[in-house]
Amino acid sequence: MGKLTLPFVGMIMAEFAQVGLIILSKKAMAQGMTNFIFIFYSNTIAALLLLPISLLIHRFERPPITFSILCEFFLLALLGYLAQAFGYAGIYYGSATLSTSMLNLVPGFTFVLAVLFRMEQLDWRKFSSLAKSLGTIVSIAGAFIVTLYKGPALLLGVSSANSSPKLLLSVDSNWILAGLFLAADCVMTSAYIILQASILKKYPAELIVVFFYCFFVAIQSAVTCLVVERDISAWSLEPKLRLLAVLYSGVMGSAFQVGITSWCLHQTGPVFVSMFKPLGILISVVLGVLFLGDAFYLGSLVGAIVIVVGFYSVLWGKAEDIKDGGVRIIRYQKVGDELLLEENSHEDTQRP
Q: N or C terminus of the chain: which is more exposed, having fewer CB within 10 Å?
């Protein structure tokens, strides 16, 4: 356990940082900040932080940046921007628990896209392929449950203490809308991961790629804001909670969480890191009830359990593929505002 102590603590901190980002962004948007402006500020801060760090770390290994590579960076940023826009919209209309539960769909959607783009082999004679396929279907079924069914409230926050529980199929349009936005976020995240895998094969300087990602997302969101947001006061960072949320997103949601998760991935591999995703659901339930006044519904509990079962089924299938040898694995995590990917050979995963 000694070698895993620091990664264990690091992943708990990373999950708290993830849920903290969800809660603060929801509060900031509840006070009038649009998701587009929030994305602009947070990615601008992240880009300013990553510029000197990426140039320092990759000072001896910087591949030349061609026009075609820049175009791919721009497309990568567009996918990431859409993922963030859908994700923050889902956070605004839904709850912290719904958001963290739906994020577990990313491995399943990534598997589907990887099969479509022939980055992943599907052999129906192998249990690993069956596990990944069934896990994806189960995860999607869990997403339908958590989105379409609320059920009775198991825990009530301060603001929802007086609301009546909904025992039948929910007709709450905001809740369903949130689920659709978050599902779209997961699809865009998965598409981002597939494109990022292709880019990193040609340009293996991860932090420079992430810098250009944040830089182009900041530009794209700025253009969107200028077109959509006519009210100058919407750019204000008052009250102070807006400023706190933006700073937290840029520093903790990007630099800190990306860094600590990258280190944990390098030390332990993707399975260990992925094991902590259900912890995010538990943290979001507690913090959401305490600080956002969210209610925790039976549908969220059942749906989250189903999604996690599917999530681990996909992970088990990937682990079995690795055991077979000669398999290249994709390590993927949605980390704060960033989407982190590493690709390593089977041999790399066997180091002590």
A: C
Cβ neighbours for 330, distance < 8 A, ≥ 6 positions apart: 110, 114, 119, 193, 197, 341, 342, 343
Q: Check whether 139 has a pLDDT greater than 90.
A: no
Residue 227, token pair as written in the block:
């077109």
Mean pLDDT of the chain: 79
Residue that is written with structure tokens 């250009």 in the block: 212
| Strands 338-344, 329-335: pairing kind | antiparallel
Encoded amino acid at 110, one letter = T
Q: Give, as one character, the DSSP assignment of residue 232.
A: G
Q: Is the pLDDT of residue 271 over 80?
A: no
Task: Give the pLDDT band (50/70/90) at residue 262.
Answer: low
The whole-number pLDDT of residue 325 equals 56
- The answer on pLDDT for 158 being more than 70 is no
Cα–Cα dist 111/278, whole Å: 19
For the chain, how many structural domains are there in total? 1
- CA dihedral sign of residues 205, 206, 212, 216: positive
* Cα gap 133→114, rounded to integer Å: 12
Do the Cβ atoms of 76 and 196 come closer than 8 Å? yes
Task: Please give the structure tokens belonging to residue 255.
Answer: 């630099």
Q: Are strands 296-297 and 338-344 parallel, antiparallel or unpaired?
A: unpaired
Kindly report the length of the chain.
Answer: 352
How deeply is 286 buried, as exposed, middle or buried, from its count of CB atoms within 10 A (0-12, 13-18, 19+)? middle
Spatial CA neighbour of 236 closest among 37, 88, 45, 27: 37
In which domain, by residue range, is 150 found?
A: 2-350
- Cα-atom radius of gyration of the chain, to the nearest Å? 20
Q: How far is residue 321's CA from residue 333's CA, in Å, rounded to a whole number?
A: 19
Instruction: Identify whether the C-beta of residue 19 lies closer than 8 Å to the C-beta of residue 252.
Output: no
d(C-alpha 313, C-alpha 164), whole Å: 36
The 3 state secondary structure assigned to 149-205 is ECCCEEECCCCCCCCCCCCCECCCHHHHHHHHHHHHHHHHHHHHHHHHHHHHHHCCC
Nearest by Cα to 337 from 228, 242, 211, 152: 211
Q: pTM for the complete prediction?
A: 0.79
